[in-house]
Amino acid sequence: MTFPSPKSEAPAQRFEEATAAARNALEKLIAAANEAGWGTEEISVALLKAAQFLNDANKKDPDPAKDPDMSDAPGKREQIGHGELFD
Asked: For the whole prediction, is pTM greater than 0.70?
């Protein structure tokens, strides 16, 4: 799926453009979900919950790509099984 680039630099106009683009994308997504057998209300509520989850995650870590790779973390030890650490 493609998403249009913003045409304006003004925050209010960008918000309107983003809202219109998101609405268009969601209409297509809901139509596809309906074809797959999901009801409009259940998929709409699921999308709202997913969007809230992503919004909350973004507030906690706005740029997760900049987080250090776990393989680079000092003191990293291999895990085996259910929480046991390999010595």
From this structure: no
